[in-house]
């Protein structure tokens, strides 16, 4: 598994007109939080396509898609690989 660049915007999907990115946001506590949105246009945590954050009940990072969003299998694979990386990073700390 290649290490995703978690310090910069990660492209989930890109076409001629649209770019959907994964972006880390400031988080309180020990775990990291990410939102999925257009190329930096949306900045509010609750106004995005989805979130990746740590779930204490499951003890793993999870993807929480926003209501009324549709995801292709390619996008979901990229999100899954990113979550796998975050969980491995947390395990190795």
Write the layout of secondary structure elements.
Blueprint: E1 10-14, E2 19-25, E3 33-38, E4 50-55, E5 60-65, H1 73-91
Antiparallel strand pairs: 1-2, 2-3, 3-4, 4-5
Structural notes for this entry:
The chain has 93 residues and is α+β, with helices and mostly antiparallel strands. It is built from 1 helix and 5 strands; from the N terminus they run E-E-E-E-E-H. It has a 5-stranded antiparallel beta sheet, with helices on one face. Strand 2 and strand 3 form a beta hairpin. The chain is globular and about 40 Å long.
Largest sheet: 5 strands, antiparallel
Biggest β-sheet: strands ordered side by side in the sheet: 1-2-3-4-5
Ranges where pLDDT stays below 50 over 5 or more residues in a row are 4-8
Q: Assign an overall shape.
A: globular
Cα radius of gyration in angstroms: 13 Å
Number of separate strands:
5
User: What is the distance, rounded to the nearest whole angstrom, between the alpha carbons of the first and last residues?
Assistant: 18 Å
Order of helices and strands: EEEEEH
Please state roughly what percent of the residues sit in beta strands, choosing from under 5%, 5-15%, 15-25%, 25-35%, 35-45% or over 45%. Answer: 25-35%
Classify the secondary structure makeup into a structural class: alpha+beta
Helix content: 10-25%
Oligomer category: single chain
Q: For the residues shown, what is the average pLDDT?
A: 82
Number of helical elements: 1
């Amino acid at each position: 598994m290649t290490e995703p660049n978690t310090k910069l915007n990660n492209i989930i999907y890109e076409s001629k007109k649209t770019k959907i990115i994964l972006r880390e946001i400031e988080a309180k506590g020990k775990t990291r939080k990410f939102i999925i949105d257009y190329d930096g246009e949306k900045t509010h945590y609750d106004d995005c396509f989805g979130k990746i954050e740590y779930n204490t009940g499951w003890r793993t990072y999870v993807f929480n898609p926003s209501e009324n969003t549709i995801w292709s299998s390619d996008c979901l694979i990229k999100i899954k690989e990113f979550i796998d990386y975050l969980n491995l990073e947390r395990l190795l700390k």
